[in-house]
Protein backbone atom coordinates (compact mmCIF):
# COMPACT_ATOMS: atom_id res chain seq x y z
CA UNK A 1 0.00 0.00 0.00
CA UNK A 2 1.27 3.46 -0.93
CA UNK A 3 2.44 5.69 1.90
CA UNK A 4 0.18 8.77 2.13
CA UNK A 5 1.78 12.21 2.33
CA UNK A 6 -0.38 15.25 3.11
CA UNK A 7 1.04 18.71 2.52
CA UNK A 8 -0.32 21.79 4.27
CA UNK A 9 0.11 25.01 2.27
CA UNK A 10 0.20 25.11 -1.53
CA UNK A 11 2.69 27.90 -2.12
CA UNK A 12 6.26 27.54 -3.43
CA UNK A 13 7.36 25.20 -0.64
CA UNK A 14 4.21 23.06 -0.52
CA UNK A 15 3.79 22.65 -4.27
CA UNK A 16 7.43 21.64 -4.63
CA UNK A 17 7.02 19.10 -1.83
CA UNK A 18 3.91 17.68 -3.53
CA UNK A 19 5.73 17.24 -6.84
CA UNK A 20 8.71 15.52 -5.19
CA UNK A 21 6.42 13.21 -3.18
CA UNK A 22 4.47 12.32 -6.34
CA UNK A 23 7.64 11.54 -8.33
CA UNK A 24 8.76 9.24 -5.47
CA UNK A 25 5.55 7.21 -5.66
CA UNK A 26 3.60 8.51 -2.65
CA UNK A 27 -0.17 8.97 -2.47
CA UNK A 28 -0.21 12.80 -2.26
CA UNK A 29 -2.85 15.31 -1.10
CA UNK A 30 -2.29 19.07 -0.64
CA UNK A 31 -4.53 21.35 1.43
CA UNK A 32 -4.45 25.16 1.70
CA UNK A 33 -6.58 27.27 4.05
CA UNK A 34 -6.35 30.13 1.53
CA UNK A 35 -6.77 30.33 -2.23
CA UNK A 36 -4.14 28.53 -4.32
CA UNK A 37 -2.47 30.69 -6.97
CA UNK A 38 -3.30 29.69 -10.54
CA UNK A 39 0.27 28.80 -11.57
CA UNK A 40 0.57 26.41 -8.60
CA UNK A 41 -2.80 24.84 -9.53
CA UNK A 42 -1.46 24.26 -13.04
CA UNK A 43 1.56 22.38 -11.64
CA UNK A 44 -0.73 20.26 -9.42
CA UNK A 45 -2.95 19.41 -12.42
CA UNK A 46 0.08 18.48 -14.54
CA UNK A 47 1.34 16.06 -11.90
CA UNK A 48 -2.21 14.76 -11.16
CA UNK A 49 -2.04 15.77 -7.50
CA UNK A 50 -5.30 16.04 -5.52
CA UNK A 51 -5.81 19.36 -3.73
CA UNK A 52 -8.28 21.52 -1.82
CA UNK A 53 -8.30 25.25 -1.11
CA UNK A 54 -9.93 27.63 1.42
CA UNK A 55 -10.30 24.81 3.95
CA UNK A 56 -8.54 21.98 5.76
CA UNK A 57 -10.85 18.94 5.58
CA UNK A 58 -9.88 16.95 8.65
CA UNK A 59 -10.74 13.47 7.31
CA UNK A 60 -8.51 14.01 4.25
CA UNK A 61 -5.60 15.05 6.45
CA UNK A 62 -5.55 12.80 9.52
CA UNK A 63 -5.23 9.61 7.43
CA UNK A 64 -1.68 10.70 6.46
CA UNK A 65 1.42 8.67 7.30
CA UNK A 66 3.39 11.93 7.33
CA UNK A 67 2.59 15.64 7.05
CA UNK A 68 4.78 18.23 5.32
CA UNK A 69 4.01 21.66 6.75
CA UNK A 70 4.77 24.92 4.96
CA UNK A 71 6.94 27.21 7.15
CA UNK A 72 4.30 29.94 7.40
CA UNK A 73 1.85 27.71 9.29
CA UNK A 74 2.15 28.11 13.07
CA UNK A 75 2.51 25.08 15.34
CA UNK A 76 -0.36 26.61 17.33
CA UNK A 77 -2.83 26.48 14.43
CA UNK A 78 -5.95 24.38 14.93
CA UNK A 79 -5.12 21.79 12.26
CA UNK A 80 -1.58 21.23 13.62
CA UNK A 81 -2.99 20.71 17.13
CA UNK A 82 -5.34 18.02 15.74
CA UNK A 83 -2.43 16.36 13.88
CA UNK A 84 -0.28 16.37 17.03
CA UNK A 85 -3.05 14.65 19.02
CA UNK A 86 -3.13 11.93 16.33
CA UNK A 87 0.69 11.67 16.66
CA UNK A 88 1.24 11.98 12.90
CA UNK A 89 4.86 13.02 12.14
CA UNK A 90 5.18 16.61 10.84
CA UNK A 91 8.29 17.65 8.88
CA UNK A 92 9.42 20.60 6.76
CA UNK A 93 9.97 20.66 3.01
CA UNK A 94 13.72 20.84 3.67
CA UNK A 95 13.68 17.69 5.81
CA UNK A 96 11.66 15.77 3.20
CA UNK A 97 13.70 16.91 0.19
CA UNK A 98 16.97 16.24 2.00
CA UNK A 99 16.17 12.50 1.97
CA UNK A 100 16.48 12.48 -1.82
CA UNK A 101 19.34 14.95 -2.28
CA UNK A 102 22.88 13.69 -2.87
CA UNK A 103 24.33 17.15 -3.57
CA UNK A 104 26.58 19.02 -1.12
CA UNK A 105 24.48 21.44 0.92
CA UNK A 106 25.69 24.82 2.19
CA UNK A 107 23.02 26.05 4.62
CA UNK A 108 22.72 29.58 5.99
CA UNK A 109 20.64 30.96 8.84
CA UNK A 110 20.64 34.00 11.11
CA UNK A 111 18.26 36.74 12.15
CA UNK A 112 19.72 39.10 9.53
CA UNK A 113 21.75 38.86 6.35
CA UNK A 114 20.58 35.38 5.27
CA UNK A 115 19.33 36.27 1.81
CA UNK A 116 22.30 38.50 0.97
CA UNK A 117 24.85 35.90 2.11
CA UNK A 118 23.02 33.04 0.39
CA UNK A 119 22.75 34.97 -2.89
CA UNK A 120 26.39 36.09 -2.72
CA UNK A 121 27.62 32.55 -2.08
CA UNK A 122 25.46 31.17 -4.91
CA UNK A 123 26.92 33.87 -7.20
CA UNK A 124 30.43 32.80 -6.09
CA UNK A 125 29.83 29.09 -6.79
CA UNK A 126 28.28 29.79 -10.19
CA UNK A 127 31.19 32.07 -11.07
CA UNK A 128 33.54 29.22 -10.16
CA UNK A 129 31.72 27.03 -12.70
CA UNK A 130 30.03 24.77 -10.15
CA UNK A 131 26.64 23.20 -10.93
CA UNK A 132 24.71 24.87 -8.11
CA UNK A 133 21.08 25.47 -7.09
CA UNK A 134 19.69 28.29 -4.89
CA UNK A 135 16.92 27.18 -2.53
CA UNK A 136 15.09 27.44 0.78
CA UNK A 137 13.79 30.77 1.96
CA UNK A 138 15.02 32.36 -1.29
CA UNK A 139 14.81 31.22 -4.91
CA UNK A 140 12.82 28.19 -6.02
CA UNK A 141 11.56 25.38 -3.80
CA UNK A 142 14.32 22.99 -2.70
CA UNK A 143 11.95 20.00 -3.11
CA UNK A 144 10.94 21.05 -6.64
CA UNK A 145 14.59 21.33 -7.65
CA UNK A 146 15.44 17.94 -6.13
CA UNK A 147 12.52 16.49 -8.14
CA UNK A 148 13.34 18.13 -11.46
CA UNK A 149 17.03 19.21 -11.50
CA UNK A 150 20.38 17.52 -10.99
CA UNK A 151 22.66 19.91 -9.09
CA UNK A 152 25.98 19.02 -7.45
CA UNK A 153 25.65 21.79 -4.85
CA UNK A 154 22.83 23.68 -3.15
CA UNK A 155 23.10 26.97 -1.29
CA UNK A 156 20.07 26.95 1.03
CA UNK A 157 18.72 29.84 3.11
CA UNK A 158 16.93 28.51 6.20
CA UNK A 159 14.52 30.44 8.40
CA UNK A 160 13.87 29.35 11.98
CA UNK A 161 10.46 28.03 10.86
CA UNK A 162 12.11 25.73 8.31
CA UNK A 163 14.70 24.59 10.85
CA UNK A 164 11.96 23.68 13.34
CA UNK A 165 10.73 20.90 11.06
CA UNK A 166 14.17 19.35 10.48
CA UNK A 167 15.31 16.18 12.24
CA UNK A 168 17.58 13.95 10.10
CA UNK A 169 18.58 16.62 7.56
CA UNK A 170 22.27 17.49 7.60
CA UNK A 171 24.23 20.39 6.14
CA UNK A 172 27.75 19.85 4.80
CA UNK A 173 28.60 23.47 5.60
CA UNK A 174 26.42 25.27 8.17
CA UNK A 175 26.62 29.07 8.51
CA UNK A 176 25.08 30.96 11.45
CA UNK A 177 25.37 34.71 10.87
CA UNK A 178 23.85 36.16 14.07
CA UNK A 179 20.99 35.79 16.53
CA UNK A 180 18.87 38.77 17.58
CA UNK A 181 15.24 38.80 18.82
CA UNK A 182 12.87 38.06 15.92
CA UNK A 183 9.62 36.12 15.42
CA UNK A 184 9.35 35.83 19.21
CA UNK A 185 5.58 35.76 18.83
CA UNK A 186 6.00 32.30 17.24
CA UNK A 187 8.18 31.13 20.16
CA UNK A 188 5.94 32.13 23.07
CA UNK A 189 8.19 35.21 23.56
CA UNK A 190 10.93 32.86 24.87
CA UNK A 191 14.30 33.89 23.47
CA UNK A 192 15.95 30.55 24.30
CA UNK A 193 13.38 28.70 22.18
CA UNK A 194 14.30 30.94 19.23
CA UNK A 195 18.04 30.37 19.89
CA UNK A 196 17.44 26.60 20.01
CA UNK A 197 15.65 26.86 16.68
CA UNK A 198 18.58 28.66 15.01
CA UNK A 199 21.08 26.14 16.39
CA UNK A 200 19.18 23.30 14.72
CA UNK A 201 21.34 24.17 11.69
CA UNK A 202 24.19 22.38 13.51
CA UNK A 203 22.09 19.24 13.95
CA UNK A 204 23.76 16.04 12.73
CA UNK A 205 27.04 17.75 11.77
CA UNK A 206 29.93 15.28 11.77
CA UNK A 207 33.69 15.80 12.04
CA UNK A 208 33.83 15.95 8.21
CA UNK A 209 31.45 18.95 8.13
CA UNK A 210 31.97 22.67 8.75
CA UNK A 211 30.38 25.24 11.04
CA UNK A 212 30.96 28.94 10.26
CA UNK A 213 29.83 31.50 12.83
CA UNK A 214 30.24 35.10 14.02
CA UNK A 215 32.34 35.27 17.18
CA UNK A 216 31.23 38.90 17.75
CA UNK A 217 27.69 37.65 18.39
CA UNK A 218 27.31 37.18 22.15
CA UNK A 219 24.24 34.95 21.98
CA UNK A 220 25.98 32.60 19.54
CA UNK A 221 29.11 32.38 21.71
CA UNK A 222 27.12 31.75 24.91
CA UNK A 223 25.27 28.91 23.21
CA UNK A 224 28.47 27.42 21.74
CA UNK A 225 29.93 27.22 25.25
CA UNK A 226 26.92 25.13 26.28
CA UNK A 227 26.88 22.54 23.50
CA UNK A 228 29.32 20.08 21.91
CA UNK A 229 29.96 20.26 18.16
CA UNK A 230 32.04 17.75 16.25
CA UNK A 231 32.27 19.82 13.03
CA UNK A 232 35.33 21.83 12.02
CA UNK A 233 34.72 25.41 13.21
CA UNK A 234 35.60 28.70 11.49
CA UNK A 235 34.79 32.06 13.02
CA UNK A 236 34.55 35.58 11.62
CA UNK A 237 35.03 38.79 13.60
CA UNK A 238 35.46 42.52 13.09
CA UNK A 239 36.71 42.98 16.67
CA UNK A 240 39.69 40.61 16.91
CA UNK A 241 42.11 38.47 14.91
CA UNK A 242 41.10 34.83 14.52
CA UNK A 243 43.27 31.80 13.71
CA UNK A 244 40.83 30.03 11.39
CA UNK A 245 38.22 32.15 9.59
CA UNK A 246 38.05 35.86 8.76
CA UNK A 247 38.95 39.16 10.45
CA UNK A 248 39.78 42.80 9.71
CA UNK A 249 43.32 44.17 9.62
CA UNK A 250 44.49 47.58 8.32
CA UNK A 251 41.32 48.12 6.28
CA UNK A 252 41.47 44.66 4.72
CA UNK A 253 39.29 41.61 5.12
CA UNK A 254 41.63 38.68 5.81
CA UNK A 255 40.35 35.15 5.19
CA UNK A 256 42.47 32.33 6.59
CA UNK A 257 41.32 28.76 5.93
CA UNK A 258 43.68 25.86 6.65
CA UNK A 259 46.69 28.22 6.71
CA UNK A 260 45.96 29.64 3.26
CA UNK A 261 45.38 33.40 3.52
CA UNK A 262 43.69 35.84 1.19
CA UNK A 263 43.11 39.58 1.56
CA UNK A 264 40.51 41.96 0.10
CA UNK A 265 40.40 45.73 0.80
CA UNK A 266 37.08 46.56 2.49
CA UNK A 267 36.83 49.61 0.22
CA UNK A 268 36.54 47.23 -2.76
CA UNK A 269 33.64 45.18 -1.37
CA UNK A 270 30.48 45.96 -3.35
CA UNK A 271 28.34 45.35 -0.24
CA UNK A 272 28.77 48.34 2.07
CA UNK A 273 28.28 48.66 5.84
CA UNK A 274 29.55 46.61 8.78
CA UNK A 275 26.71 44.09 8.53
CA UNK A 276 27.54 43.41 4.89
CA UNK A 277 31.20 42.95 5.75
CA UNK A 278 30.08 40.14 8.06
CA UNK A 279 28.05 38.63 5.19
CA UNK A 280 31.07 38.88 2.87
CA UNK A 281 33.28 37.21 5.48
CA UNK A 282 30.91 34.26 5.95
CA UNK A 283 30.55 33.70 2.20
CA UNK A 284 34.31 33.97 1.65
CA UNK A 285 35.13 31.39 4.34
CA UNK A 286 32.62 28.98 2.77
CA UNK A 287 34.13 29.66 -0.65
CA UNK A 288 37.61 28.77 0.60
CA UNK A 289 36.31 25.65 2.39
CA UNK A 290 34.92 24.59 -1.01
CA UNK A 291 38.36 25.29 -2.51
CA UNK A 292 37.14 28.07 -4.79
CA UNK A 293 40.09 30.05 -6.15
CA UNK A 294 40.93 33.23 -4.28
CA UNK A 295 40.66 35.31 -7.45
CA UNK A 296 37.11 34.07 -8.09
CA UNK A 297 36.13 34.97 -4.51
CA UNK A 298 37.65 38.46 -4.90
CA UNK A 299 35.82 39.04 -8.18
CA UNK A 300 32.52 37.83 -6.67
CA UNK A 301 32.86 40.26 -3.74
CA UNK A 302 33.36 43.10 -6.22
CA UNK A 303 30.71 42.35 -8.88
CA UNK A 304 27.77 40.91 -6.89
CA UNK A 305 24.68 42.99 -7.65
CA UNK A 306 22.87 42.58 -4.32
CA UNK A 307 19.33 41.51 -3.42
CA UNK A 308 16.07 43.23 -4.37
CA UNK A 309 14.29 44.88 -1.40
CA UNK A 310 17.48 44.79 0.73
CA UNK A 311 19.14 48.23 0.94
CA UNK A 312 18.30 48.58 -2.75
CA UNK A 313 19.38 52.03 -3.91
CA UNK A 314 16.51 52.78 -6.25
CA UNK A 315 16.41 56.23 -7.91
CA UNK A 316 16.86 59.91 -7.13
CA UNK A 317 13.95 62.34 -7.50
CA UNK A 318 14.96 66.02 -7.48
CA UNK A 319 18.16 65.15 -5.63
CA UNK A 320 16.44 62.96 -2.99
CA UNK A 321 17.63 59.34 -3.02
CA UNK A 322 15.06 56.60 -2.40
CA UNK A 323 16.25 53.31 -0.85
CA UNK A 324 14.08 50.19 -0.72
CA UNK A 325 14.84 48.10 2.37
CA UNK A 326 11.43 46.44 2.62
CA UNK A 327 13.11 43.15 3.58
CA UNK A 328 13.98 44.72 6.97
CA UNK A 329 11.19 43.03 8.92
CA UNK A 330 12.88 43.33 12.32
CA UNK A 331 14.61 46.00 14.41
CA UNK A 332 18.12 44.66 13.90
CA UNK A 333 17.80 44.78 10.10
CA UNK A 334 16.69 48.40 10.35
CA UNK A 335 19.61 49.15 12.69
CA UNK A 336 21.98 47.99 9.94
CA UNK A 337 20.17 50.10 7.35
CA UNK A 338 20.26 53.27 9.47
CA UNK A 339 23.91 52.63 10.30
CA UNK A 340 24.68 52.80 6.55
CA UNK A 341 23.01 56.19 6.03
CA UNK A 342 25.40 59.07 5.31
CA UNK A 343 22.89 61.85 4.53
CA UNK A 344 19.88 63.28 6.45
CA UNK A 345 17.24 60.55 6.35
CA UNK A 346 13.46 60.40 6.21
CA UNK A 347 12.58 56.96 7.55
CA UNK A 348 9.41 55.10 6.51
CA UNK A 349 8.73 52.56 9.28
CA UNK A 350 5.96 50.41 10.71
CA UNK A 351 3.73 47.44 10.03
CA UNK A 352 2.93 44.41 12.17
CA UNK A 353 5.01 44.78 15.35
CA UNK A 354 6.38 41.38 16.47
CA UNK A 355 7.07 42.56 20.02
CA UNK A 356 9.72 45.05 18.89
CA UNK A 357 12.09 46.80 21.27
CA UNK A 358 13.13 49.99 19.47
CA UNK A 359 15.63 51.18 22.10
CA UNK A 360 18.65 50.03 20.06
CA UNK A 361 17.65 52.45 17.27
CA UNK A 362 17.38 55.57 19.43
CA UNK A 363 20.95 56.87 19.06
CA UNK A 364 20.92 56.27 15.28
CA UNK A 365 17.58 58.01 14.91
CA UNK A 366 18.82 61.03 16.90
CA UNK A 367 21.97 61.20 14.78
CA UNK A 368 20.65 60.51 11.28
CA UNK A 369 16.85 60.81 11.00
CA UNK A 370 15.11 64.15 10.39
CA UNK A 371 11.62 62.78 9.80
CA UNK A 372 9.57 59.60 10.19
CA UNK A 373 6.54 58.43 8.25
CA UNK A 374 4.71 55.68 10.17
CA UNK A 375 3.18 53.22 7.72
CA UNK A 376 0.82 50.80 9.42
CA UNK A 377 -2.54 50.24 11.04
CA UNK A 378 -1.15 50.79 14.55
CA UNK A 379 1.63 53.38 14.88
CA UNK A 380 1.25 54.28 18.55
CA UNK A 381 4.51 52.60 19.64
CA UNK A 382 6.59 54.41 17.00
CA UNK A 383 5.14 57.77 18.07
CA UNK A 384 5.79 57.01 21.73
CA UNK A 385 9.45 56.03 21.22
CA UNK A 386 10.55 58.46 18.49
CA UNK A 387 8.03 61.32 18.59
CA UNK A 388 10.34 63.68 20.51
CA UNK A 389 13.52 62.75 18.63
CA UNK A 390 12.73 64.02 15.13
CA UNK A 391 11.53 67.26 13.54
CA UNK A 392 8.56 65.63 11.82
CA UNK A 393 6.58 62.43 12.44
CA UNK A 394 3.44 61.63 10.43
CA UNK A 395 1.12 58.68 9.80
CA UNK A 396 0.24 57.08 6.46
CA UNK A 397 -2.32 54.39 5.71
CA UNK A 398 -1.05 53.50 2.23
CA UNK A 399 2.31 53.31 0.46
CA UNK A 400 1.34 56.15 -1.88
CA UNK A 401 0.56 58.43 1.06
CA UNK A 402 3.80 57.42 2.81
CA UNK A 403 5.98 58.14 -0.23
CA UNK A 404 4.35 61.53 -0.86
CA UNK A 405 4.71 62.58 2.80
CA UNK A 406 8.36 61.42 2.92
CA UNK A 407 9.14 63.25 -0.32
CA UNK A 408 7.61 66.48 1.03
CA UNK A 409 9.72 66.20 4.22
CA UNK A 410 12.92 65.85 2.20
CA UNK A 411 15.13 68.25 0.31
CA UNK A 412 18.06 67.94 -2.09
CA UNK A 413 20.77 65.47 -0.90
CA UNK A 414 18.44 63.82 1.64
CA UNK A 415 17.58 60.10 1.62
CA UNK A 416 14.16 58.47 1.95
CA UNK A 417 14.62 55.01 3.48
CA UNK A 418 11.87 52.40 3.55
CA UNK A 419 13.09 50.08 6.34
CA UNK A 420 9.97 49.08 8.26
CA UNK A 421 11.41 46.97 11.17
CA UNK A 422 8.04 45.18 11.06
CA UNK A 423 6.20 42.48 9.14
CA UNK A 424 4.11 43.59 6.18
CA UNK A 425 0.85 41.70 6.61
CA UNK A 426 -1.35 44.56 7.81
CA UNK A 427 -1.34 46.44 4.49
CA UNK A 428 0.58 44.20 2.06
CA UNK A 429 0.74 40.59 0.86
CA UNK A 430 4.46 40.29 1.68
CA UNK A 431 7.62 42.34 2.07
CA UNK A 432 8.14 41.91 -1.71
CA UNK A 433 4.71 43.43 -2.39
CA UNK A 434 5.55 46.29 0.01
CA UNK A 435 8.88 46.97 -1.73
CA UNK A 436 7.36 46.76 -5.22
CA UNK A 437 4.59 49.22 -4.27
CA UNK A 438 7.23 51.56 -2.81
CA UNK A 439 9.15 51.60 -6.10
CA UNK A 440 5.97 52.10 -8.14
CA UNK A 441 4.91 55.04 -5.97
CA UNK A 442 8.37 56.64 -6.17
CA UNK A 443 8.26 56.37 -9.99
CA UNK A 444 4.95 58.28 -9.93
CA UNK A 445 6.39 61.29 -8.03
How many beta strands in the DSSP annotation? 20
Output the CATH class name of the largest domain: Alpha Beta
CATH architecture of the largest domain: 3-Layer(aba) Sandwich
Low-confidence stretches: none
Mean pLDDT: 92
Number of helices: 17
- Classification by helices and strands: alpha/beta
Q: How many domains, in number, for the residues?
A: 3
In CATH terms, what is the fold-level topology of the largest domain?
UDP-N-acetylmuramoyl-L-alanine:D-glutamate ligase
For the termini, the CA-CA separation is 62 Å
Across the major sheet, the strand order is: 7-8-6-9-10-11-12-13-14
The percent range for helix content is 25-40%
- Give the strand content: 15-25%
Rounded radius of gyration (Å): 22 Å
Biggest β-sheet strands, sense, barrel: 9 strands, mixed
- Backbone shape: globular
What is the CATH homologous superfamily assignment of the largest domain?
Mur-like, catalytic domain
